[in-house]
């Protein structure tokens, strides 16, 4: 599926998480497709875990070790995970609650909507049928590629594969908000075409990356043999795949450069694009996907010049191999067991260190939520998110917005001119909490209980057509980019809105019964984090209406850049894996958001404590409100990560690991040093701390 989401390209402004769960669980046996596996049912988490604290650690030396030390010792990574943390703890709890809905809908649906998502789940669970079918479900797409012989018709073939199967090859095409006029939805084409996680996996020559490439070649070869190739054919096809993907990787824009909106905005006429890529007939592609285009954003022009060169130089046979591979890879997890297991062994095992594949019920629950999330979400919200919870969250958001407004007013480095513009942007924030006001209509999608791959293809086509239909239409500002049960949150710069799915509004992030200090340290910092994204290195380039526009004075922008450079240097010296430091520029936006969120949530907490009176400031369990605030913040980031996964995230993840999200933010907070009586010069109270917001 070729889709572009403006928020994904413009700003990596999600809070981020995965989804493990706690050891506090019970055993329960449930029927799954006639089988009766034992499922570990996670219990609800807790918002303040005193047992997680390691009091042998010095909070002024390593606060993360102090707040999370015992939790990390007592929560090893499950075999089916690459990372295990408090986010995962809640995610696993939500996953099970979704599963119970899906299982019921698959067995005894009560509504047409339940029939649809119940059928999707049932088809996903049917491994026996998948094993009987082998690779047959993708044969129609492979046959189209096999019948292709003329490079002049490549664009028509790619359009047909997208329009009929939801398969996008070589690049991504879709709608996006025009960054110069956010009320306009324009067509955009963006680099793509790679299988490995990042261009560095093809280009870096250290021993680790060389080893991964060797294993990738072995994996692709094995997959082609499973598809029916002889070993010799498979080896030849694999070399073609590797050569083409490496050429595309060389021309792909690095992730750090994509953080600047100006680097991915080049509006051109179709004639201009065609002139730069003479070997590829764009008009035929757009005709095949039934989408008229006269002008579009060519986000990464250099990539398409290189793609054109590859089309010109590669043989028809090599291009076929590349396309066959991407069709096979895209469907591998839905095919028979040999394909599924080989796909897992490389992408989860080799790349991330996962020891065992997650059970089918988990994978199918996640797949159904991804495919029909707002169908499942309607029923999930009705059972798991009350109107009172939404109202309370709205009040918290208002409190944090007020605190950020005060923070902006108090900045000594910002001039009155820029301060006025910053306040305008803050007042223009749209708050989206829990779930969409209008649910997505999936009635046009045919979902069958005996067509796992077909269901996935039809959903992909539905999403593709829905995205392309936005071109030239008014922006739907009420649309969501995450499903309701998701344990996450995000800021969308083009819409200037902050989004908090219902899934995160539970312990350890939010608890009706806990004291304000813990809630403000957890969900309060999450709220502040998303708001600060509107003022990080990317978000700060967007004005209140979501347009890219310089609303800063030149002098203030220089002061801002000086302060963010401090964070780049600080986090760029953190070393999650020996010899592997964080990329301070890649993680800058998230680090700025963490630091800003911690600052403004602290201000909001103290306004709340003042309203509640003296009793609210008394210690609880031996900790003052300020100490509980910082512990509440730190403990949502307790986690353990496999080394392979840690290395992968260093390359691609704009978020710092939990240890450095915690220590990096608190060591820049003078209030933290006061709360734990840290002396200046200790690791958590450095002499030259960084401060942006």
TrEMBL record:
Cited CDD domains: M13
Region forming the signal peptide: 1-25
Pfam families, A to Z: Peptidase_M13 (PF01431), Peptidase_M13_N (PF05649)
Cofactor: Zn(2+)
InterPro entries registered for this protein in UniProt: MetalloPept_cat_dom_sf, Peptidase_M13, Peptidase_M13_C, Peptidase_M13_dom_2, Peptidase_M13_N
Peptidase M13 C-terminal domain: residues covered: 488-692
Gene Ontology molecular-function annotations: metal ion binding; metalloendopeptidase activity
Keyword vocabulary terms for this entry: Hydrolase, Metal-binding, Metalloprotease, Protease, Signal, Zinc
GO cellular component terms, A-Z: plasma membrane
Stretches assigned to the Peptidase M13 N-terminal domain: 59-436
GO biological process: protein processing
PANTHER family per record: FI17812P1-RELATED, ZINC METALLOPROTEASE FAMILY M13 NEPRILYSIN-RELATED
Stated family: Belongs to the peptidase M13 family.
Protein name as it appears in the record: Endothelin-converting enzyme Metallo peptidase. MEROPS family M13
Species per Swiss-Prot/TrEMBL record: Terriglobus roseus
């Amino acid at each position: 599926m070729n889709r572009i989401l403006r928020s994904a390209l413009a700003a990596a402004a999600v809070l981020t998480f995965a989804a493990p769960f706690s050891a506090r669980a019970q055993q329960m046996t449930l029927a799954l497709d006639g089988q009766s596996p034992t499922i570990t049912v996670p219990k609800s988490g807790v918002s303040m875990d005193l047992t997680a604290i390691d009091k042998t650690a010095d909070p002024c030396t390593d606060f993360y070790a102090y707040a999370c030390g015992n939790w990390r010792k007592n929560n090893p990574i499950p075999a089916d995970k690459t990372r295990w943390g408090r986010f995962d703890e809640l995610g696993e709890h939500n996953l099970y609650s979704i599963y119970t809905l899906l299982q019921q809908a698959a067995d005894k649906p009560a509504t047409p909507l339940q029939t649809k998502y119940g059928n999707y789940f049932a088809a996903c669970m049917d491994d026996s049928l998948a094993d009987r079918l082998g690779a047959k479900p993708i044969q129609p797409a492979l046959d189209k590629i096999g019948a292709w012989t003329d490079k002049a018709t490549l664009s028509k073939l790619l359009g047909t594969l997208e329009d009929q199967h939801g398969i996008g090859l070589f690049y991504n095409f879709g709608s996006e908000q025009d960054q110069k006029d956010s009320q306009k939805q324009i067509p955009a084409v963006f680099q793509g075409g790679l299988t490995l996680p990042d261009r560095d996996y093809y280009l870096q020559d250290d021993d680790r990356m060389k080893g991964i490439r060797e294993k990738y070649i072995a994996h692709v070869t094995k997959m082609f043999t499973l598809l029916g190739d002889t070993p010799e054919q498979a080896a030849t096809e694999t070399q073609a795949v590797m050569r083409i993907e490496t050429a595309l990787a060389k021309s792909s824009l690095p992730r750090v450069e994509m953080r600047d909106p100006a680097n991915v905005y080049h509006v051109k006429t179709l004639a201009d694009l065609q002139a730069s890529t003479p070997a590829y007939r764009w008009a035929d592609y757009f005709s095949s996907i039934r989408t008229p285009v006269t002008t579009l954003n060519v986000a990464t022009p250099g990539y398409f010049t290189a793609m054109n060169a590859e089309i010109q130089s590669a043989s028809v046979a090599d291009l076929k191999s590349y396309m066959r591979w991407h069709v096979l890879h895209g469907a591998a997890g839905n095919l028979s067991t040999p394909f599924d297991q080989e796909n897992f062994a490389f992408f989860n095992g080799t790349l991330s260190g996962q020891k065992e594949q997650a059970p089918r019920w988990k994978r199918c629950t996640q797949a159904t939520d991804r495919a029909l999330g707002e169908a499942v979400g309607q029923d999930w919200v009705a059972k798991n998110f009350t109107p009172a919870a939404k109202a309370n969250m709205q009040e918290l958001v208002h409190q944090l917005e007020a605190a950020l407004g005060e923070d902006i007013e108090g900045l000594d480095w910002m001039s009155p001119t820029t301060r006025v513009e910053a306040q305008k942007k803050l007042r223009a924030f749209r708050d989206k909490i829990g779930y969409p006001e209008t649910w997505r209509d999936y009635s046009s999608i045919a979902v069958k209980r005996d067509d796992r791959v077909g269901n996935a293809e039809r959903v992909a086509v539905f999403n593709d057509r829905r995205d392309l239909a936005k071109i030239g239409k008014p922006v739907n500002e009420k649309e969501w980019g995450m499903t309701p049960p998701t344990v996450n949150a995000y800021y969308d710069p083009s819409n200037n809105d902050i989004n908090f799915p219902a899934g995160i509004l539970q312990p350890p992030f939010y608890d009706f019964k806990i004291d304000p200090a813990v809630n403000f340290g957890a969900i309060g910092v999450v709220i502040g984090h998303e708001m600060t994204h509107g003022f990080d290195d990317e978000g700060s380039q967007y004005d209140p209406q979501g347009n890219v526009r310089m609303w800063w004075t030149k002098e203030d922008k220089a002061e801002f850049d000086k302060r963010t450079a401090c964070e780049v240097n600080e986090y760029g010296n953190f070393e999650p894996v020996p010899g592997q430091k964080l990329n301070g520029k890649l993680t800058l936006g998230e680090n700025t958001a963490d630091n800003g969120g911690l600052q403004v949530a602290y201000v909001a907490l103290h306004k709340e404590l003042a309203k509640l009176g003296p009793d609210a400031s008394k210690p609880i369990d031996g900790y003052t409100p300020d100490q509980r605030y910082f512990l509440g913040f730190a403990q949502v980031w307790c986690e353990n990560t496999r080394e392979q996964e840690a290395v992968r995230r260093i390359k691609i993840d704009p978020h710092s690991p939990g240890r450095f999200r915690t220590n990096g933010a608190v060591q820049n907070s003078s209030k933290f040093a006061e709360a734990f009586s840290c002396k200046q010069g200790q690791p958590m109270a450095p002499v030259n701390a960084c401060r942006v917001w």
